[in-house]
Amino acid sequence: MYVWEWQFLWESWHREAVGLSAPIVSHQKMEDSEESSDEILARLTSAVQRELAAVIALKARKSAVERNEDNNDKHVTVTESEGVPDPQAGVMCKLQEKDDIGRIELVQKLARENCQCLQTDKKEQEKSEHQDDEVTTVQVKEQDQNVLVLKKVQSCRPAPQAGSVESDWRYVVVSGTPEKILEHLLNDLHLEEVQDKETETLLDDFLLTYTVFMTTDDLCQALLRHYSAKKFQGKENSDVPCRKRKVLHLVSQWIALYKDWLHEDEHSKMFLKTIYRNVLDDVYEYPILEKELKEFQKILGMHRRHTVDEYSPQRKNKALFHQFSLKENWLQHRGTVTETEEFFCHVYVTEHSYVSVKAKVSSTAQEILKVVAEKIQHAEEDLALVTVSFSGEKHELQPNDLDISKSLDASDRIFVYRKDLADTLNPFADNEESQQRSVRILGMNTWDLALELMNFDWSLFNSIHEQELIYFTFSRQGGGEHTMNLSFLLQRCNEVQLWVATEILLCSQLGKRVQLVKKFIKIAAHCKAQRNLNSFFAIVMGLNTASVSRLSQTWEKIPGKFKKLFSELESLTDPSLNHKAYRDAFKKMKPPKIPFMPLLLKDVTFIHEGNKTFLDNLVNFEKLHMIADTVRTLRHCRTNQFGGDMSPKEHQELKSYVNHLYVIDSQQSLFELSHRIEPRV
């Protein structure tokens, strides 16, 4: 583990473990703290939890010895072996192997009761742990090297008798080589209509995270080998149709999960073409494959023209899949963006303020200029769009220019300039025009405005592929086109926060400013009611921005009921106990709902950085399961689709406003505005 992780986790239990005096807290608060600790521990693999438990016990033992406690204190031996207790040692307790989190909880409990944790004989302890490992784990070896590690867990399956449950044991993957994990997955698959939960989860975990440890080409080749193998589970010509059906089932789930992502990858296109032809050949020898063939054809319906009819080996397409195998560092690039795809275009009005325009890739410069002109309330014919490079070089965009987003370098900006009588371009001065803007938002219905925010955010959230969170976490390159939809939603959260501060600070009249703050508090409440937690957090954070929160004259005039409402809303953003308030509230919300994406990414990142991806050259699949389980939050949130009802006229007006927010992205400029409208006394 990393140093900061040990320090972070140790501090959570340090006060109780070493027996230091602590302030008296309520029983409920202690329960909440323990529950929060359990949630953090749930994001650590069992190996890391065992190491952490050992460290806590060792720290507690050393502290107890240093303080030289009275002999009347209870003594506890932290061990998993059956030893003969010393009559003078006090009460003896044995830690069981039921679950690793429970072991840590017990250490905490004993430390609070002022017990001493004593270390037993190291050889005996290692012997006991080795015996426990033999009982609970199975290690598959090839050439004296581990290739697969399985852990024994209890599984509950429906029994033949109605209303009864049959409990049995099964083995889940802890770590292994990519090939052996895939082999175990195929062996574990059932061809019944409904898979058992464990197998379904294993399949989903593998498909979501395989790009961490193998390339798409590797997976395709491995699946073809399994499909064409003459032996299955060591038996020649035995259950060959069963093996082929299992491979086809995995492929169908792969296609269903990745949808349009799959047919744009060169390796997967060749694979789909090859395996489809193999099934066509095999269906005559194995008629049982006819059902799978029909399902396969149905699933491949949208892809067939890409795989069978139009595929050409000479065609050089850019791949959509972005492999990031940590061993090979094999990265591919996203395919060509279609003309219907949208992007965020920031058109700067001044040096520190811009209009955020959501436009199609095929949009012309004139279409973007029309939106900006309407937003800043200037005649379109008096304005022009200009690209400004990092060195200060300017280039005026022509009305029919296309693909603006592609023509810009990373450091380039688009500005809107004014044309004077001599047709020379002049920039807007800071706050010259913005101070004169009318406060349009005061005339808008808060519920409808929140609904339009939800519509906009939902379109972004619904476009995020689960794979984007995996790539965002593991890729060392950070953002880019491969996480485009995720980046859009994160950017939107930041823009809404800046929009709230901008609207309030550009309002110079105290009375209207008070009305604006009240308006945003109501919009935040409506966002929560509509289960849009992304915009909810952004608005609350915007109201809590230092440049806004310092406006004492404004906040003094806010009615008490609005202050109380804002305090209640603010409590949901409280980060204490690992954002417990937010997590509890979000769990109770039914889908469709939009989570606060930065926190979801934080959870995935915590799992990634707190656990190694490879253990002894084996893929740490236990870690990948935890990551996949967190990523599946997106799937749960999108169980139902969102659809807001609004009259066409109101919808169009609000949509235009929400889609093109005017924001100031400089904190210094926001503070200058803040001190200008309410100078420091």
TrEMBL record:
Residue ranges of every copy of the Ras-GEF domain listed in the record: 445-680
UniProt GO molecular function: guanyl-nucleotide exchange factor activity
Family annotation (Gene3D superfamilies): Phosphatidylinositol 3-kinase Catalytic Subunit, Chain A, domain 1, Ras guanine-nucleotide exchange factors catalytic domain, Son of sevenless (SoS) protein Chain: S domain 1
N-terminal Ras-GEF domain boundaries: 169-301
Function recorded in the entry: Guanine nucleotide exchange factor (GEF) for RAP1A, RAP2A and MRAS/M-Ras-GTP. Its association with MRAS inhibits Rap1 activation.
Superkingdom of the source species: Eukaryota
Full protein name: Rap guanine nucleotide exchange factor 5
Cellular compartments annotated: Nucleus
GO biological process, one term: Ras protein signal transduction
Keywords carried by this UniProt record: Guanine-nucleotide releasing factor, Nucleus
GO CC aspect terms: nucleus; plasma membrane
InterPro entries attached to this UniProt entry: Ras-like_GEF (IPR008937), Ras-like_Gua-exchang_fac_N (IPR000651), Ras_G-nucl-exch_fac_CS (IPR019804), Ras_GEF_dom_sf (IPR023578), RASGEF_cat_dom (IPR001895), RASGEF_cat_dom_sf (IPR036964), Ubiquitin-like_domsf (IPR029071)
Gene expressing this chain: RAPGEF5
